[in-house]
C-alpha cells in the first residue's frame, strides 16, 4: 500500500505536467480536479460515516487548512506550468524541512544544531537544483520559487491539521477541506475556466480521471492504512522517496532533462531529510497535490 501511494503521488507530477502542456489552463485544471475530488470525498464520507459534522472549536483550524490548501494548489499548478516536473519533484523534497520550521514556529519543535544542519543542507540542495535547471534563469527560477512555495504551504497545512486528525477520519477531513479549497480555487480561476476549451482529446481526460481518483482519493485511504499497519515513522521515512521517484518518472515519461547539479541537489535535500528525521518525525497529512 505504501509503495502504491508513493508511485501514485510521484506519477501525479508527470500527469499534471502533461495535461497542462496539452490544452488545460492551470486554474481551469485545478478547478475541475478539486471539484470532482471534493464531490467524491463528500459522497464517500456520507456513505461510510453518515455525517460531515465537526466541533465548533475546530472551525478556525479547518478554515486555515482550506486557505493553505488553496494556496498550495495555486503554487503547484503554476510551478508545473512554468518549469519541469523533475525540477519540482526534487524541490518538493524540502517539505519535511519546512514542516520542522513551522513546528518551531508553533512550538512543537525545538531548535537544535541538528535541525539547522539539516535546514542548511537542504537549502544548499535547492540552490543546486536551481543552478542546474536548464532554460532561461528567470523562467526556471520563478518555477523553483513556486515549487518552494508549494512545499512550504503543504508543510504548513500538515502541521495545522495534525492536532485535529485525532478527532476526525481522513475522509471526513478531506470532505470538508477539499470542497472548501475548491470554492476558493473556482473563484480565483473564473477567468481561465470560462475561456477554457474542453475539446482536449480522450488521453487528456483519461489522465484527468487518474489525477482525481489516484493521487487525491485512493492515496488518502492507502496512506493512512499504511500508517496504521507499519507506524508513522516508517511510513513517513519511506514517503520521502516520492520526490525523487517523481523526478525519475518525469525524466522517463516526459523526456525531461536533468543535470548533474540537479541530481547533486536532490542528494543534498535527501541528506537534510535524513538528518532531521533522525531527531523526530514532523506531523504529516495525506498528500493532496
Element layout with pairings:
Elements: H1 2-20, H2 26-49, H3 59-82, H4 85-91, H5 95-106, H6 113-132, H7 137-161, H8 170-188, H9 190-195, H10 202-230, H11 232-239, H12 242-254, H13 260-277
Helix pairs in contact: 1-4, 1-10, 1-12, 2-3, 2-8, 2-10, 3-7, 3-8, 4-7, 4-12, 5-7, 6-13, 10-11
Q: Mean pLDDT, nearest integer?
A: 82
Structural class by secondary-structure content:
mainly alpha
Specify Rg, calculated over alpha carbons.
18 Å
Major sheet: none
Question: Please, how many domains?
Answer: 1
Number of strands: 0
Molecular shape: globular
What is the H/E string? Answer: HHHHHHHHHHHHH
Spatial gap, N to C terminus = 18 Å
Q: Can you tell me the residue ranges where pLDDT is under 50 for at least 5 consecutive residues?
A: 279-284
What proportion of the residues form beta strands (DSSP E)?
Answer: under 5%
Summed up, the helix count is: 13
State the helical fraction: over 70%
